[in-house]
């Protein structure tokens, strides 16, 4: 499988519609954008998740757990079908990561949602240790998912440190 994330172009929306796993992996099409697919994927993930969470927290936790359990397969199979490990357009991992941050916020508000978005994207893009290690060393769908879950944990720690006055 080629290692370059940009060497292989993203599939078309028509191709995603024909392959449900790719449709999920590419975040309902949000991963098709040429510049910043992870950022758009994170935003779409939030737009899908926040109304569900406000409506029914139990259902939101269920969707997150599904995203985590199915994510290894969704991301791994999407990578296999496109022929690139962790193609930039695969954004299911961003969905799972931002969903975890949102679930563990001190309160559900515009302020915390904005902070969640900004911090998650900073850590997902900058990839400090051990995010960079997971991104480089863990293969398959688990590797695609793991770096975003670690980025989510960093964001959660910073938000709670700010909330409690630790920072």
Question: Count the helices. How many?
Answer: 8
Oligomeric state, counting identical vs distinct chains: single chain
How big a fraction of the residues is strand?
A: under 5%
> Which value, in Å, is the CA radius of gyration?
15 Å
Question: What can you see in these coordinates?
Answer:
There is one protein chain. It is built from 8 helices and no strands. With 167 residues, the protein is mainly α. The longest helix has 26 residues. The radius of gyration is 15 Å and the shape is globular. The N and C termini lie far apart (43 Å). The model has no long low-confidence stretch (mean pLDDT 91).
Supply the key terms.
mainly alpha, 8 helices, 0% strand, 167 residues, globular
Secondary-structure topology with pairs:
Elements: H1 13-18, H2 20-25, H3 37-55, H4 57-82, H5 92-103, H6 110-126, H7 131-137, H8 140-164
At a glance:
The protein is an all-alpha fold and 167 residues long. The chain is built from eight helices and no strands.
